[in-house]
Hints:
This protein has helices spanning 16-30, 41-56, 86-99, 116-130, 146-172, and strands at residues 66-73, 78-84, 103-109, 140-142. By secondary structure, the chain is of the alpha+beta class. It has one domain (16-172). Helix 4 (116-130) packs across helix 5 (146-172). The longest helix has 27 residues, at 146-172. It is globular. It starts with 15 loop residues before the first helix and ends with a helix. Mean pLDDT is 83; it is low at 1-10.
Amino acid sequence: MELMPLMQPSSLPFSAALEKQREEYVEMLRAGHLPSDRLPAVARSVEEAVLARAWEHVGRPGNGSRLYVLSVMGTHPRVKVGQGDARGRIARHRNEYHVNGHGLVDAWISVPLASARMAERALLAIAKWNSSPPGYRREEYPNADFGEFREAARFTVLQLKQENYDLHNAERS
């Protein structure tokens, strides 16, 4: 049986060339210059690199429900929290963002979880106490700090994993 790490490191650096592309993409998004009829090559390459990095340490897409945190840039930047089939849901979010002139500039994805919904609820409770109120959707936080949400998500997953481990061991005793 292959062992997977609990979750990806907090932040893995991009190559210098990719980081430069990412910065260009962020500026394009902030200025509202993302064409709605076709996605520029820089957008595709940056978003695919962001997702490849997010999936790198948590196993291949699929294999269960996951918690995820997305950094969405545009004229109205935000952090999006979600759970479920991360691959499919993130693809749908990206399509919606592109139509509205926004793009994905960073992402964090958990390992498969027994209860990703519970993890999301816990993360949203933390967010309620530690950040600005959500925007027009309960899981989206305008102008929020992606790094803070990523670390809160990592903490939430670690806590739930520990509670499940403790419960399992208590039942065996």
